[in-house]
Amino acid sequence: MVEPLTGMRVVEMSTALQGPGAGGYLADMGAEVIRVEKPEGDGSRYGRGVNNDSPPGTPGAQFVSTSRGKKSLAVDANSEMGREAILRLVDTADAFISNFREAALERMGFGYEALRARNPPLVYAAVNGFGPKGPLAGRAMTDIAAQARGGVMSLIGEADGPPERIGATSADLAGALQFALGIVTALLARERHGMGQKVNTSAYGAQIWMQSWELTHTAISGKRLEREGAFHPNVTGMEGIYQTKDDGWVAISFALTEESWQAMCAFGGHPEVADDERWQTLSQRVGVSVDDARAIRPYVAAIFRAHTTVEWESFMEGQPDIIFNRVFNLDDVLNDPQAEANGYITDIEVPPLGTIRGVGTLVQLSETPGSVKGPPPELGQHTEEILLELGYDWEQISAINDRTRAAMRAKFIALGMEPPY
Questions:
Q1: Does residue 225 belong to any structural domain of this protein?
Q2: Which residue of the set 232, 270, 307, 382 is catalytic?
């Protein structure tokens, strides 16, 4: 079946999450994504994380999540042979994507002007931590640094407690989403206008974009938003996270109708709350009056403490006008029939484990749908296939592979580790 990016070739030189995450989306949409790896492989191949008892040789979860369905070319980019092989590959590509520092790419011979001279229609996509300009343009970044500088960390946590981080790599992956969008936009511009170009995004910029409402509110009001724990700093009504009788947690936005509001209060043992003149209308409950809207929260908390989480879920099944959900843990998400029905969670092959549950593709297209292409590649799995296609003979391929293996062994020995071969 034809997919949206069928026929597109993407060369990816990247690490961690931003670059690989964008490349993963392009692969799901049908592009041939060739991940150029160091002789010893990308570090994410080996990251075990916490409580991971999978068999030795199982690729790291970060690598699986971003590189399933890609090809792997393992060469030593610091050698003349390896560098030439990568340049030949870029000559055949529609897009080159990287989250390496641009100064490093320049030194290696993979800067924008150098690759553009070889392949003028190329879409050259570079993502970094803090953006391509300004005093921090070349500074290294991790997810926590982007959350901190982007401001979102200041809005997470209890009002009288310290700031907290989001419990997911939201800065990196928001950056990956914006990066993928920029790449696809540039590919469309090339199809329409016949020109390649350079694409830049950053994790820091993505954090700012994700807070466009909150930042604009602060600019307009002249008053900085502050964190409020289980509640959004710019939503003053009952919306928030509440504890149940069995110490579970539920999230509720509001009851859309008076009937559903009355039913909820009655089920929670406090029918008098529904009759309180301060909260009888939807606009009152969502926060026309700051004082009254915030005053409702202790009453809502008492209502939810009256029943267990399961009892509340059962009650809410008959209340479609109440926007409510139990707070899911990660096991719940992996086994959610709603996620499976939409392809958000799907089966993925991961040698040597076999089939696991993993994240599918988010974007649904009726005529040219994308798909999960298969397992993550073994290190250098497609090296010979790619080099043969680029015109190398077997003698040249053997020389490149010998140089790559020597570089890999030197790296492992320098780290005090036993080389795999």
A1: no
A2: 232
